[in-house]
Task: structure prediction
Amino acid sequence: MEPLSDPLNDRVVKNSTIPPHRPLDHNLLFPDKSKIPDTKILREHLKKEGKLHKSDLIQIIESASSIFRSEPNLLWLRDPIIIVGDIHGQFYDLLKMFEIGGSPKVTKYLFLGDYVDRGVFSTEVIILLYSLKVRYPDKIYMLRGNHESRNMTSYFNFRSECITKYDLDAYDRIMESFDLLPLSSLINEKFIALHGGISPRLAAIEDIGDINRFREPPKDGIFCDILWSDPINDDYGRLSSQFQPNQARGCSFVFGHEAVTKFLDRTDLISIIRGHEAQLDGFKMHRWNGSNEFPSVITVFSAPNYCDTYNNKAAIIKLDDDVINIQQFNFTNHPFMLPNFMNVFAWSVPFLVEKVMAIFMALLEKKSVNGKAEADEQYEKRCEELEKQIREKHKAILKDKVKSIGKMMKLYKKVREEHEFLLDSQATIFSGQMSKHVFFEDNLAFECDEENFMKAKAVDESLEKSFNSYI
Result:
């Protein structure tokens, strides 16, 4: 884990950790020729923005995939257990979550999906979670979310992140591993945990076991609904029918109190625990049976300050002896990344060209003004007649050059401005990192209140709806 060298000790931001110069050594990652990764060393390496050798990355993916393949569609788990909602590539918040929840060496975790996209450290999230799964297969359990698909990761930013940090083959192998993830979990035979929600085609728990999960999620059916459906946003769960088309997502359904009650009665369960939706407090208790009753649906979201915009809290659920405790936490600062994982040299080219052209134009303008006097002084006696002939010609040429460079400067300035606008737009649409000025004029501070949160959520939901229209 040798860091980048700094022989002159002239780094501008000295309190920033120097990233590792080379990928993590194979013998450090897999000590004693073991196939079990050292997750402590790996965590610290990834925390410093380090990478792995391609062969080591593939080994971790294949080892985790073999475990996922052996697991059923529906996991049967017992508490004590910690249930984690969406992470969305927020690696440094994932590290904070483990600090709060406890070491996976002794603590059991169930992740509800959506590990990638939106955030810019999705590969680090996958590498760490897969390594923990390999090291502690009976402590780490992972379900599939709607973003664990080829369509979603291509539309948003995980695919480009993989190609930037590794290559297309690494992305394809991770996608193949996503096809192996289980879809749901039954905890204490009382709680069902999944990413999205229930389906009108889900009559019994056994129906989940009949799903062919080893593929790209379809656009409809039980498989789709488990990943995409939502509870109705109503304090009483009121809906004119049990299920209605999910207009916000552009696919699947929304379900209400009646559908949930009938499902829980049929299956003899207490509650549905799911992720899939950002929450201002990191969680939401859908108490459709009354404020004194156990919530029939619980939503948990574990990505604080989602998209670096929402300023929301994150939460995890601690389930022990059928008792639910909510643990909230705030965001952790992370290294800055340019939009679309652009390097600083490519990002700075438009600015550099504009400045060079400005210098060139200034020199030509000076020459065009002073050239006549200098030339007259130098050649006045020797070649007055000759200079008269060429003076006007050179003057016209210089004048044309100045005009051309002026036009070019305007063009480059416009290109740079459009370049900046496109970067910001792409960050909004594809990465989900919505700039504050998307919602507020004059760059007003983004405060953590429900009104601003709902504005951000509305824009975010429109992006996913656009995706479903796109496919």
